[in-house]
């Protein structure tokens, strides 16, 4: 399929940064550094030209995309699948057995992989991926990947790929320097940052004053006042995330909790519930400030102030993605002030005296204990739910069929009935488990 046909089918029109990146990748043989604000579409910027240059007939890995975390790996691999360009992609990351990934690698035979540094090194060491077939090295969020914690892994990785011909580095913020071991050659820089506009003017900033040092009551009132919109509440510590999430749940809010101490499956379920509208609040550490490509986040709430400017830029970049608008709220205690690096106008937000009750999200998430390994498809899921539970198409939302299980967004007011009528039922003749993901 021609690239213009793909873009038309997806309803995508490339922005100036994406056009410039495509031009640099397609019309030169140089390495490319892309600097552009969070939310401006850097994943499409490098994938659109890359898919035109890889060989869909070959069964070897030709391009590796290094990312700092599993969520970005998964989401980027899903973008390739959505493009339906003939290329096979796979996400590789820690938290699950390398052996399981090796089996999937043999089955899928991807031409492009999205991987965290340590896990890719593991596969290269074991010979699960042949290093000599890799011609492209892309590093997404390269400033994060090149932080001190990743330096040794990144150097080992770069030295393990002897036949790389082109490199593409992408980030919203610029590293002080690019280490020599990345082996950058002649370079084109695509820089679409603005010194005056670290935060797009499509994001409206507000400060919310708390009369007490413990700001949980003020946070609860703020969330009530902004209603059933999609919000991320950022905190700086895992323990604070847990405490805040438990408090908000006690007040009746439906939310997801996200931090690095959760098991992989818990993190995936949390993000899935938030992205499919089953939870309208994500309470998160700064782990959620990068790599989450969820397009319709309305509000960013800084319960804890960002520790530096880069952190702030990445947080607010979760909203107003592409051409949308968003809001960012600073919840300030009696002795707290807006950080000096915030140059934009910050308006005062007054919480109304009369507040509405908590509004529950429209959707809930159904877990089905079978997946791709059991030959289950999205069509099978829709047919089963329509037949057994009498659901209409509008009552079924996002469906993600994983290798061994499936998540389905369904109308919240139908979830109890669905669980009742599917208990003990078989799907495609297979007995399975149906549960609500909470």
Structure description:
By secondary structure, the protein is α/β, with parallel strands linked by helices. 33% of the residues lie in helices and 21% in strands. It has helices at 3-10, 16-26, 42-53, 70-83, 98-108, 117-126, 142-145, 148-159, 216-226, 238-250, 264-275, 309-316, 378-389, 415-422; strands at 31-35, 63-66, 89-92, 112-115, 136-140, 166-171, 187-191, 203-209, 231-234, 255-258, 281-284, 299-302, 326-332, 346-348, 363-368, 396-401, 406-411, 426-427, 430-431, 434-437. It has a seven-stranded parallel β-sheet with strand order 3-4-2-5-6-1-7, sandwiched between helices. The protein is globular.
Please sum up the structure shown:
With 438 residues, the chain is α/β, with parallel strands linked by helices. It has 14 helices and 20 strands.
Strand count, sense and barrel status of the largest sheet are: 7 strands, parallel
Sheet-strand content, in percent, reads 15-25%
Number of DSSP E strands: 20
- Helix fraction by DSSP (H/I, runs of at least 4): 25-40%
Mean pLDDT over the full residue set: 91
In the sheet with the most strands, the strands line up as 3-4-2-5-6-1-7
Oligomer state equals: single chain
Shape: globular
Task: Considering the chains and any ligands shown, give keywords for the structure.
single chain, 438 residues, alpha/beta, 7-stranded parallel beta sheet, 20 strands
List the SSEs and their pairings:
Elements: H1 3-10, H2 16-26, E1 31-35, H3 42-53, E2 63-66, H4 70-83, E3 89-92, H5 98-108, E4 112-115, H6 117-126, E5 136-140, H7 142-145, H8 148-159, E6 166-171, E7 187-191, E8 203-209, H9 216-226, E9 231-234, H10 238-250, E10 255-258, H11 264-275, E11 281-284, E12 299-302, H12 309-316, E13 326-332, E14 346-348, E15 363-368, H13 378-389, E16 396-401, E17 406-411, H14 415-422, E18 426-427, E19 430-431, E20 434-437
Parallel strand pairs: 1-6, 1-7, 2-4, 2-5, 3-4, 5-6, 8-13, 8-14, 9-11, 9-12, 10-11, 12-13
Antiparallel strand pairs: 15-17, 15-20, 16-17, 18-19
Helix pairs in contact: 2-3, 6-8
